[in-house]
Amino acid sequence: MTETVTLTFDDLKGRIQRIFEMAGVRRETAAAVARVIASGERDACKSHGVYRIEGCLRVLAAGKVVLDAVPQVHDAGTSAIEVDAGGGFANVAFEDACDALVARTRETGLAALVIRDCLHFSALWYEVEILAGHGLASLSMCPSYATVAPSGGQTPLLGTNPFAFGWPRAGAFPYVFDFATSVAARGEIELHRRAGTPIPEGWAVDKQGQPTTDPQAALDGAMLPFGGHKGSAISTMIELLSGAMLGEFMSREALDFTGTTALLPRHGALILAMDPSVFARRSGRDPIAEGERLIEAIAGQGARLPSQRRFAARAMAMADGIALTPDEFERLERFEALGLDALSG
Amino acid sequence: MTETVTLTFDDLKGRIQRIFEMAGVRRETAAAVARVIASGERDACKSHGVYRIEGCLRVLAAGKVVLDAVPQVHDAGTSAIEVDAGGGFANVAFEDACDALVARTRETGLAALVIRDCLHFSALWYEVEILAGHGLASLSMCPSYATVAPSGGQTPLLGTNPFAFGWPRAGAFPYVFDFATSVAARGEIELHRRAGTPIPEGWAVDKQGQPTTDPQAALDGAMLPFGGHKGSAISTMIELLSGAMLGEFMSREALDFTGTTALLPRHGALILAMDPSVFARRSGRDPIAEGERLIEAIAGQGARLPSQRRFAARAMAMADGIALTPDEFERLERFEALGLDALSG
Q1: Which Gene Ontology molecular function entries are recorded, alphabetically (chains A, B) (predicted)?
Q2: CB-based contact, A5 to chain B, within 8 Å
Q3: Hey, which residues 262-301 in chain B have their CB within 8 Å of chain A?
Q4: Cα nearest neighbour of A80 on chain B
Q5: Nearest 5 degrees, angle CA B5-CA B9-CA B11?
Q6: Sequence ranges of the domains in chain A
Q7: In sequence order, what DSSP letters do the residues of B280-318 get, joined into one string?
Q8: Which residue in B has a C-alpha nearest to residue A107's C-alpha?
Q9: How confident is the model at residue A339, as a pLDDT?
């Protein structure tokens, strides 16, 4: 087979859901995970696409995820709604608590969603986009695994700690960014190691805290945060707000718990949602129209808006279907046929 | 006079307050502004210290601040408390609304303070430190003047948009960061222009969007955000959340309104406050103790914590007094004697 295979979103989503259901994951959880993975693939966001299936199955095989976890929403009427994922995937916990978060935010202007004890694959763009679809601005963040040294240090303490923001736009894809607060992803360094090529300067330090371009020394040492001490401070903030503040794992504990960076980490997550129509009310101005003036001026000077490549890929996929390479489709079929047994093949 | 002059905090604060009162600023506002400026000087945070007095007086002389503005707090019982600064200084508006913000945050876990129509000199560390003193974590942000181009662009649209975070520590100064989301401050480029020295690469682009090390070309062009497209996205988020969302000026409008970057900008500000004890409650863990584990591990590997230089200067100043250079003290005395007339000297 040498030709790409084109699937509809629903076909791809259904196939992925069946793979997880066959592996013992409860139906609603499998559906939520499949929705995110199919969305990632649709958006040509390959790191959250079908490539993720194998990683998720490895966590299942390792017994590090609770297959039948049913998220429990706790809403005491405060600004902070909580959902216990119970050691299951974060995606279904978010879905189960989303309506309550949206309703509370519209009512009071500002509300938080705390996700506890979840396996997260950090597709934070998915969450902030859904909230933008409800007309809400939002921030989302979570720790990960301690692989990043604070600026000026040499020992991994911080995670690649993703940070995402969504802002609703009228009649257009929302303004969405979602990035790791490390300069690079660990996987990128691993690719350089395998290829025997040096990594760019500024990505990492060796065990002694000295800058290195040797991928093996970088993997033995620590990655660096983006933007020097400023990015380091933002990554630390993410540890504190979505780890310590929630009483959930920070990146160091998440790594100690799983014992490897090869499996998805288990920790909490924090989402802050804001209703611009509530915040702007007394001003008499339309916050979305105001936002458009800035966003259009950014795009108008030729600067790229974040997520534009993703949205362009999505528009194509919705018109023409989602194209998988022969290799991707073959692996998908292998997982459909063999389930967890495909991992050992 | 060639020797430094040492003042107590209260003496310095009192002198600054009198300068503003003599210039026609209402007593409570003068006191609030003086508290921040004296605190900046105490912390050796020179850009917010006595150096600021002249800038504030210039805004007064230009008629761009409402001298007798009395902040109006609007609390409709939602998560977002608002205070109209009425074209006066932000500091007193923050002080007047702070108790309500603290009370609401403790009650519901999460609350926002919206400051409307204020003159801000962006000492955001001052606000998040006060909230940390009440045991709260907080984020603070505001736009400024459009002097920064978005990553990949060439026309100034974004401000130097400061971003601050505070986290309470037990028995220690809080964890606080406060930084501009531009690589450098405009004043730093101006200093290079006067000295005839090139600016470092990465600070700015010329009018055509090309990287430049020529300070004049940089001033005619645009500064750049820190951290490439990630910092640019964070700066854009600050425009949207603390400008568009509030129905207050973004940096472009603030510049159009004042017509110069030589005076303090007029705009709004957004503070998000969180009570870790509310967020952590169901976990049974102590969020402050958890935070200490990370913060101590960062410091323990020799990485500098943000604000440590400021806190060290404060400890010295509280023990030995606040030392002003002869030039600084002379200018202070000149403002005390002549008020606004000192500006033309």
Answers
A1: oxidoreductase activity
A2: no
A3: 272, 274, 276, 278-288, 290-291, 293-295, 297-298, 301
A4: B109
A5: 70
A6: 1-61+308-345
A7: HGGGTS-HHHHHHHHHHHHHHTTPPPTTHHHHHHHHHHH
A8: B78
A9: 85
Assigned architecture for domain A1-61+308-345: Orthogonal Bundle (1.10)
Structure token digits, residue A35: 């929705």
User: What residue in B sits closest to A291 (Cα-Cα)?
Assistant: B244
Q: Confirm or reject contact between A177 and chain B (CB < 8 A).
A: yes
Which whole-number Å values give the CA distances from B184 to A167, B44, B140, in the listed order?
Answer: 27, 19, 20
Beta partners for residue A5, in sequence order: A324
Coil, helix or strand at residue B340: helix
Number of residue pairs across A and B with CB atoms under 8 Å?
244
Helices B27-42 and B124-133: crossing angle in degrees, nearest 10, is 90
Question: Hey, are the CB atoms on B167 and A294 less than 8 Å from each other?
Answer: no
Q: In the prediction, which pLDDT does B122 show? A: 79
| CB-CB contact of B220 with B145 (8 Å) | no
For A154, what's the count of Cα atoms within 13 Å in the CB-facing half-sphere?
Answer: 12
Pick from A47, A63, A84, A54: nearest CA to A258: A63
Interface confidence (ipTM) of the complex = 0.96
What CATH topology corresponds to B1-61+307-345? Hypothetical Oxidoreductase Yiak; Chain: A, domain 1 (1.10.1530)
pLDDT tens string A310-341: 999 999 999 999 999 999 999 999 999 988 88
**B116 neighbourhood in chain A, CB within 8 Å:** 282-283
User: How close does chain A come to B2, measured CA to CA in Å?
Assistant: 37
Q: Are B224 and B201 in contact (CB under 8 A)?
A: no
Residues of B carrying an active site annotation = 47-48, 188
